Amino acid sequence: MSIQKNIISASPHVHSGKASKTVMYDVVIALIPAFLVSMYVFGIPALITTSVAVISCLFFEYGIQRFIMKTKTSITDGSALITGLLLAFNLPSSIPLWMIVVGSLVAIGVAKLSFGGLGFNIFNPAIVGRVFLLVSFPVQMTSWPSATPGAFPLSDAVSGATPLGIVKEGLMYGETMTALASKIPSNIDLFLGVTGGSLGEMSVLALLLGGVYLLIRKVISWHIPVAMLGSMALFSGAFWLYDPTMYASPMFHVLAGGAVLGAFFMATDMVTSPMTTKAMLVFAAMIGIITMVIRMFGVYPEGVSFAILIMNAFVPLLNKMLKPKRFGAKITAKFV
Amino acid sequence: MLKTFPKGGVHPPENKITATKSIQRLPVPKTVHVPVAQHIGAPAQIIVERKEKVVIGQVIAKSGGFVSSNIHSPVAGVVTKIDKIIDSSGYKKDCIVIRVDVKDESNFVDEVFPIKHTIEQSSEEIVKIIADYGIVGLGGATFPLHVKLALKPDQNIDCLLINGVECEPYLTADHRLMLEKTEEIVIGIKILLKAFGIHKAIIGIENNKKDAIIALQKICKNEPDIQIAALKVKYPQGGEKQLIRAILGREVPVGGLPLNVGVVVHNVGTVFAVYDAVQNNRPLTERVVTVTGKSLETSGNFWVKIGTPISDLIAAVGALPEDTRKIINGGPMMGKAIKNTNIPVTKGTSGILLIAEKEASRKEVQNCIRCATCVAVCPMGLEPNLLMSLTEKTMFEQAVSEDIMTCIECGSCSYVCPSNRPILDQIRLGKTVVKKLDLLKN
Hints:
The complex is a heterodimer. Chain A starts with 19 loop residues before the first helix and ends in a 15-residue tail after the last helix. Chain A contains 15 helices and 2 strands. Helix content of chain A is 59%, strand content 1%. Chain B has 3 domains: 23-102 and 283-359, Ubiquitin-like (UB roll) (Roll); 135-280, NADH-ubiquinone oxidoreductase 51kDa subunit (Rossmann fold, 3-Layer(aba) Sandwich); 373-441, no CATH class. The longest helix of chain B is centred in the last third of the chain and has 19 residues, at 423-441. The radius of gyration of chain B is 22 Å and the shape is globular.
């Protein structure tokens, strides 16, 4: 007795059913609440910015793979979609559309495909795109439309600075935190997300919703978000305790800017983050510290993007240095 | 809190379809093919000739070395051929073909033995019986048991672990055995304790077999030497290193044996075989095999004579379902896919699993997205993705320094990989090459 076309393969003969695609689309789902908030706050321009970023990322992924690399295209795997979404989330909604296209080309073409495509890139593509735009077009990248929650404007309103920008500039000109307190949004406003800034970094609440979803779906583990936000709070907290008039509170630093977006969605990018839990903790803690150094002592008001890119470069080293403990490498219990 | 091992592991769907099916006796086949290499170590040496008459329990192949085991005739009949047959490894192996004598009643009587509590034999006698009667580890590794019992003077053990975990999905042979031969297993444990001269045994059972835990607890109430440990359901807890870590918190050192931490692990099936050999004078010629699969209308657990073709087992549960695309000897995580159903049941066959078309083939391999799930689930604390790529790049020396040889081949990495990468396939290849290279060096 023999069966037709029977399959011989090595064990295991079953699979969990988890697919890269599911992982990717889980991330997309997790980004929806933050996207809805950006629509609520910035109106139609938010939708346009996001659409242009997503479409151009998919376009470049397909075009480059099809006509330059001449390989099978992978636009359906969801990774280019995520890059587009995250790139848009890191842009002001008032940015000229052609700049978004340029940013997408750098993200997909340079940061991702030139390294070999999904899984081979060293740096987070969306952040590379964003930083490229930031250093090339500093004016457009730092003109923030004012938030007009619920008004659904068709175009952008007058521009205003981000809370981090206000603090940076104020402190630079010798103002104290006490004086600046009235100019920056309250922690509650920061948490709910009705402040100026990039598209996706608006509402901490919405980002946390997505983050919790990713945690529940086991797409990410708690290590990177907790270590990154924790180290930011500790680092800024130390200075704040030393002189609360000269340094913003740790709560402000964690809630403002791209900290939460970075901690849950950018630093956790599987491809560009470490593989062992020990390395993840060091990686994320260092991102937190570098972010705070840039925010407090650097030229830029915000440093999450730079911090993540810098630490992306250390990932291979961290993976090598901080290995998981091998079973039996050390005898845990003594033989009685 | 249920005990378990701390690092890694997965929890595939249990699919213990046959958990409530009591063990039936499979009809004796017309002919049996008894391979002489059913255990780890040297194959046994054939001592019968063509046309020779054999009786049940007669030694037909003698242990071929220190690490080897006797093979006994499972039936009464006539040796028709000394042949070669493809076994589940896929290679042709020597085997003894015996035609069953249909007139010999001993083939068909289902003897019921009264339970015998007193252990009369001395420790040395027990070891001798186990060696003579061809008892090997029935959990899958088929390591000759008498070798495990022969401790050197500097080797001390303080605890005997009994493996009733059965962490492989689908398989229920050990589960049923614990329910139906509870008392025999407990006596078997006492026999082994006597052989080792120690006074502590712990039976580890996963918590999805509550009935077996309760049954054993009831009998062990008055056995101060035997404890039951209920374990959290997690694969690969049946691996001896994981089991020792789960129950005793001891970690077998890299490259070491359970002996290094004062433990010896035996499967419940083995323990029953020990009971049968010592108390009933019966060599190992049959075992319990689970026959299961989602497409099967009926499925079950069977007492099967060694050498019975797998086709007989499938016939016992009806015909081979139309949609079958894979036949597995063993469980879905570590079992071997076999080519045809002429392959005989051996001492190491714990189950036959039929997998339907839907689950039989692997999905398309994609790029590694460095999600690190394989690192998280590896129970040995290895980096499967790294070992795979080192093998692909033929960097075997680095693979060795990344501890490729400590891989227990549980398959958790391949099971979880969202990109369907053949991680374990590559690691196995790497291990094989490393072994070959080592041989060249010596």
